[in-house]
Amino acid sequence: MEEGVNKNYMNRVNLALKFIDENLDVKLSLEAIAKAAHYSPFHFHRIFKAIIGESLNDYITRRRVEKAAMLLITRKGISISELSLKCGFNSNSAFTRGFKKFYSVSPTEFRRLSPGKFSKISKEESKIGQDDLIFEKYICNINNHLNWIKMNANVKIEEIKELTFASITHIGVNGMENTFERLMSWARPKGLMKSPNAKMGRVFHDSFKTTAPEKVRMSVCLLTESSFEVKGEINKMTIEKGRHIVGRFEISPNDFEKSWSSLFVWMNDNGYEKAEGNPFEIYHNDFREHPENKFIVDLCIPIS
């Protein structure tokens, strides 16, 4: 988010982001999205670019292609035609052209090169300004990741009840600590941090597997059972009840990437399929008070 942008705008932009995510399979007009955010089309277009850092059309196209890439990774049985419709493209050829602009390979080649694996983004800019996707073996040894889970996590399949969070939208990997501090500074005077059931967390709306790190959208969250006012940059977010893979880890900050990767490997190895919902983290301690500066954290993946 650009500096100097009024934080009050973020609430209504969050409504637009939610509307886009829920309607990627249909035609999305500026008028419909602006209406969902309670703005006039003219003002919304300007505010969206100021906050998100890219135009509305560019954002929608990127989200559609990234959704397709994620489905190619996680849904082995989905056809290219079904994928094209599910992600809002009006033909297979339009889908293939759009996909290749972002990832430099066709959807079919993408699936062949990365079956259930992760990818990395290069620093080299492509001709359309998107990062080229360079396929590397992220999971060098499946057994190493499964051993990591065995040594560092207790994994269960749990039916999680509906969860309510107070949240602030955060885009990119930088400045995360400041966003957490802003959320806690908002919550402390309201007494929301005093409840034993109140826990900090993070919800991932994008995946590092398919989205460049500086564009990944997350929600920095406070899990709470107390009521609160949605105001300024504070948003209300709900995780719907349902089955989740829940991995309880005790890890250092540098171990999060490996832990998430290993948990997805565990999911694939055990025959589970990710559901439409967003993965999220719930923290059970303040890592600064841990003798080894480690997080006690649940990593949660919704499954169908």
Description:
With 304 residues, the protein is of the alpha+beta class. It has ten helices and ten strands. It has an eight-stranded antiparallel beta sheet, sandwiched between helices. It has a two-stranded antiparallel sheet with strand order 1-2. A hairpin with a 5-residue loop joins strand 1 (120-125) and strand 2. Helix 8 packs across helix 10 (256-269). 33% of the residues are buried. Mean pLDDT is 86; it is low at 1-5 and 115-140.
Strand order, largest beta sheet: 3-8-10-9-5-6-4-7
N- and C-termini, Cα separation:
33 Å
User: By helix and strand content, what is the structural category?
Assistant: alpha+beta
Low-confidence stretches: 1-5, 115-140
Question: Major sheet: size, sense and barrel closure?
Answer: 8 strands, antiparallel
Nearest-integer average pLDDT: 86
Count of DSSP E strands?
10
> What is the radius of gyration computed over CA atoms, rounded to a whole number of angstroms?
19 Å
What is the count of DSSP helices, taking H or I runs of 4+ residues?
10
Measured as a percent range, the helix fraction is 25-40%
Following the backbone from N to C, one meets helices and strands in this order, namely HHHHHHHEEHEEHEEEEHEE
Beta fraction of the residues?
A: 15-25%
Shape by Cα distribution: globular
Write a short abstract of this structure.
With 304 residues, this protein is α+β, with helices and mostly antiparallel strands. It has helices spanning 8-22, 30-36, 41-52, 56-74, 80-86, 92-103, 107-113, 142-152, 176-187, 256-269, and strands spanning 120-125, 131-134, 153-160, 163-171, 199-204, 217-223, 235-239, 242-251, 280-283, 295-302.
